[in-house]
Design goal:
- Residues 2-235 form the GP-PDE domain.
- GO terms for molecular function: phosphoric diester hydrolase activity.
- The protein is an alpha/beta fold.
- The protein has a single domain (3-241), classed as TIM Barrel.
- Helices cover 34% and strands 18% of the residues.
- Helix 8 crosses helix 9.
- It is globular and about 50 Å long.
- The two termini are 12 Å apart.
Length: 242
């Protein structure tokens, strides 16, 4: 069965990469969540997509220039009067203790080469014993290889936007057990050949109904979507009719 991953949580109904978005994803029936991590000035692993806080909060500047204390004083933009803070990866793991969700952690180290980001994330995965529930991904494939060398028991997956020739061969060459292509770079034949070779395929960010249906019918391992509730409903409908 194709799993449904909530992209930055249920990010079209709650603020992206926040605890409310992750909790909503669970309510929506998602099988997993996708989130992004970076490091604060004092070396803490926090969950946020952009290198700057400007788009998603009432603050300005780079994540790397904030201490955790100052970063969590910022307000994430949302539709209520309640304060929503940028979460730490520790907060997410604490919450994951109470459910069975899988978590895809994207290492945001393509623009800013955060020193020891991989080591810190893996240390937390070990601490919370989530090795079998985590997938480490990144556009920075050097980082993915580094993760594999540090922790070969934790699944890794390179993210990419354009087509790669025989990507399952590439995945095998870097020790990755999965591929995370843009959905337009994931034709049915590639999905099927990758799966035959033991490589999971999890396209992103799959929001349109026709794209969700195509990838569900193609049997990809997972889809990463901003609309997990809609994707779960479509999956259930297809399963009922098959």
């Amino acid at each position: 069965m194709t799993l449904i991953f909530a992209h930055r949580g249920s990010s079209k109904s709650e603020p992206e990469n926040t605890m409310p978005a992750f909790k909503q994803a669970l309510k929506d029936g998602a099988d997993g969540i996708e989130l992004d991590v970076q490091l604060t000035k004092d070396g803490q692993v926090v969950v946020i997509h952009d290198e700057k806080v400007d788009r998603t909060t009432n603050g300005k500047g780079y994540v790397k220039d904030y201490s955790l204390y100052d970063l969590q004083k910022l307000h994430v933009h949302n539709q209520t009067l309640h304060k929503v803070a940028i979460p730490t990866l520790i907060e997410v793991f604490e919450w994951l203790n109470g459910n069975d969700l899988i978590v895809n952690i994207e290492l945001k180290n393509g623009v800013i080469p955060y020193e020891s980001l991989e080591e810190k994330v893996i240390q937390l995965i070990r601490l919370y014993r989530c090795e079998q529930r985590v997938i480490l991904s990144s556009f920075n494939h050097y980082s993915i290889v580094h993760c594999f060398r540090l922790a070969p028991d934790i699944e890794t997956a390179p993210i990419y936007k354009s087509g790669i020739y025989m990507p399952w061969v590439y995945a095998q060459s870097i020790g990755a057990k999965g591929l995370h292509p843009h959905h337009l770079a994931a034709p049915d034949a590639m999905i099927q050949e990758s799966l035959k070779n033991g490589i999971a395929v999890r396209p992103w960010t799959v929001n349109k109904e026709r794209s969700i249906k195509r990838l569900l019918k193609a049997g990809c391992s997972s889809i990463i979507t901003d609309y997990p509730k809609k994707a779960v409903e479509l999956r259930n409908k297809i399963n009922r009719n098959s």
